[in-house]
Amino acid sequence: MSSSLAMRLIGIALVGAALCTGIASYLFWLTSEPQTVAAEPSAGRSADLILQTVASLGPRYQHPDWVSYLARRQNGRWVHSTNLTAPAHSLIRVTIRQYDTATGLRNPYFSQVQGTSGGTMQLDGQTVKAVSPSAPAHTFAIPQLGVYVPLPGVADDAPNQCSAAPCTQDEAHHTITFTFRTKGKGHLRWQCFVPCGAGYVTGFGGPMQAFNYMSGYITVA
C-alpha cells in the first residue's frame, strides 16, 4: 500500500471517529434530563420554591446570552434547571428574584395576577393584583392550574445589574412572592408568556422554545 493511500485511509478514519463522537454527544444532550429541584418542605402541608430569572446566563453555559430561569436547591446552591417537583394537595410558596429588564406583554391578560391565593402577589413587599402590561420582563404561568403571575422588569438604567448567572441579592432585582395550591398527582407544564427571545422572529424562538430556559415541568407527587 502506498504511503499516500495509507494517509488518506487514516484521515478518513479520523474524520469518521470525530463524526461518531459528535453524533453521540448530540444525542446525549438531546435525551439527557436536567437536574430535578424539589420544593423545600415547610410547616404543615406546604413547601417553598425559590427561583430567579436572569437576562443572560453567562459564559459557563451552552447559550451564554439566553434569558433563563434558575432554581435553588435546599442546600442553597443555584442550578440551571426548570424541572421541579412539589407535593400534592399542598400550598406552594414561590419566591422569584427577577433580574431582567422589561420586555412587555403582547396580551394584557397576563398582566393580572391569577390563580394565586387571594389573586395577589407580593412585589418587593407590596401586595398587588396587576401590573402595567409594559412592565413584565417574564411571567410564571401554570396554565393547568390557572396560575399566571407577571414579573416586572428592573429599570434599564438600574445600577449594579447582573450580567451572568447565578445573580446575587446585591444586584438589581425585584422580589416576587405568591402562593398557589397543588391538586392531585400530575405533570404540569409551566412557562413564560413574555416574548423574551431577543434576536428571534417575534421573540418566541430560542430560549422561549427550549425546555430548561423559559419553560419547564412541575411533577406533583
Describe this structure as you would to a colleague.
- The protein is mainly beta.
- It folds into 2 domains: 1-32; 33-220, Cupredoxins -  blue copper proteins (Immunoglobulin-like).
- The chain contains 1 helix and 14 strands, in the order αββββββββββββββ.
- The strands form 3 sheets. Strands 2, 3, 4, 5, 7, 8, 9 and 12 form an 8-stranded mixed sheet that branches. Strands 1-6-14-13 form a 4-stranded mixed sheet, with no helix packed on it.
- The termini are far apart.
Poorly predicted regions? 20-33
Strand residue content: 25-35%
Overall residue-averaged pLDDT value: 89
Name the structural class: mainly beta
Taken in chain order, the helices and strands follow as: HEEEEEEEEEEEEEE
Number of domains: 2
Q: Architecture of the largest domain in CATH?
A: Sandwich
The global form is: globular
The main sheet comes to: 8 strands, mixed
Report the CATH topology name of the largest domain.
Immunoglobulin-like
Task: Report, as a whole number of angstroms, the end-to-end distance.
Answer: 65 Å
Helix proportion? 10-25%
CATH class term of the largest domain = Mainly Beta
CATH superfamily of the largest domain: Cupredoxins -  blue copper proteins
Tell how many strands the DSSP assignment holds. Answer: 14
Count of individual helical segments: 1
Cα-atom radius of gyration = 21 Å
